[in-house]
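Look at one such:
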Amino acid sequence: MSQEQPRRPSGQPQKQAASGEHGAVRYGDVFPKVSGGLAEKPVAPQDAATMQSAESLVLGQTLRGGPAAAMQSAATANERKGVVGHDQATDATAVQGVTVSETRVPGGRLVTEFVAGLAVGQYLARDDDATAGGRGAGSGGAARGGGGAAGMMVDTTKVTIGEALEATALAAGDEPVERSDAAAIQAAEARATGLDANVPGGLAAQAQSAAAANAWAARDQDKTTLGDVLADATAKLVADKPVESGDALRVAGAENRNKGDGTARPGGVAASLAAAARLNRDEAVWDQ
């Protein structure tokens, strides 16, 4: 993820009022209980994308009316005002990140969402609210079937590489596939399958073709997006496995090496696998 602070477009005043027609929508406006430096920071589009990715990993979807949705609305308003750019993230999320955690309680789980270590939302997800494809409250893991062409059995209490890739499709699905995305997807597929070569017609092959075509596409609307490639990623993988720290590190390295500025895309493939690895590690602690 980029660790640069969001830059205002040239011609914008260095400081704007916290409210009013031309003022930025800040974290303190969206989440009144947030205090300190975070409260004064404008909500950026990639902050919202990262939170969407984290929510989808835990809940199987973006929560309607939840923190990610609120951040998306604020970020859209800020982008329209020229306060932040579409690809920008604040230093709070780029450095300290966002987290969605869950704690088992009788009858369900208590879900808490954090930005830069500060809680921005908390709610109870009951067992009978769990939906197919979401994370089952009782198991603490994502509900999933056989998964993969070989019907490989996976630990259903953990987020898999395929599911992390699908989370990317939700969080950054409208973004055109770039060379760095293709490299990250190739690394993720290799970690999931254990194969050194690309699977013919697989995710990596599709991503590489998309990145090459996008480099020559004259219009953005003609470009293949991450959502086009990564939708139903679990079903497209010939094998799948729970995300581990080593998987996330390998994917992050591949993405960073192939990005011009050496940074991962906020809400992208590396970010989603990092969030999944962190969630899986926390699940292991809770299960002890």
Summary: Residues 135 and 254 are 28 Å apart (CA to CA).
